[in-house]
Amino acid sequence: MSLAKTVFQSPIHITAFGFGSGLAPFAPGTFGTLAAIPLYLILSLFPLWLYFVVIVIAAVVGIWICGESAKKLGVHDHEGIVWDEFVGFWITMFAAPSGLIWLIAGFVIFRIFDIWKPWPIYIVDDKVQGGFGIMLDDLMAGVYALIVMQILAFFLA
Q: Which of 4, 7, 22, 31 fits 82 for a cystine, CB–CB 3.0-4.6 Å?
């Protein structure tokens, strides 16, 4: 059975694969982050406390979803599992100024941290297993990117 067919037959896989965005033939993490943007635009309309609650729920549920998807696929962290990118990007954009330039900046900064994996993210990526490991490195990249975004917003917005 093809991977796409497997993904679209399971609510766990379809969520873990970012509603299909993780099936991109190259750079699935980038496509997953792009697919997170429309949901971010909706989230950005929420009060900050509710936005935060959604992030926490998405992260906690994501640990289970990503872990189950990886287990069912028999791969620790399949590159197509991009729910972690969704949540990491939403963390990046928490309390970000509105506007296209900030959206682009958040996207680029998050992708840099997610790909670069500076200390201690690379350790987490290498050592922490299961759904928690799949999620944690991207949550950390999101926090690093959030800090950069807030510094930029302080000086530029």
A: 22
- Classify burial at 152, counting beta carbons within 10 Å of its beta carbon; exposed 0-12, middle 13-18, buried 19 or more: middle
CA dihedral 17, 20, 26, 32 (to 10 degrees): -60
**What backbone phi and psi angles, to 5 degrees, belong to 26?**
-145, 155
Rounded to an integer, what distance in angstroms lies between the CA atom of residue 125 and that of residue 104? 25
Q: Which two tokens stand for residue 8?
A: 């679209």
pLDDT of residue 157: 79
**For 119-138, what is each residue's pLDDT tens digit?**
999 999 999 999 999 999 99
Cβ neighbours for 51, distance < 8 A, ≥ 6 positions apart: 43, 44, 90, 94
DSSP 18: G
